[in-house]
Amino acid sequence: MPTLYNAINNRPEVKAGKINLRSIKACISGSAPLMRETKEKFEELSGGKVFEGLWIVRSADRDSLQSIVGHQ
User: What is the DSSP letter of 25?
Assistant: First the structure.
């Protein structure tokens, strides 16, 4: 959800480097279109990859998610 990524990107503690997001490998945004700037900023801060999927429903397929992040 784009509002979540915007909130994280703009949180003062994140901007100041007090919160480390580097453990994030992959995230999914699916409730509305995600602005490219928001996506790129989050990926820069976290080092992870944001996947957009407006096809995503409330309960995502576990196997699909594991394929995205490379786990079995």
Answer: -
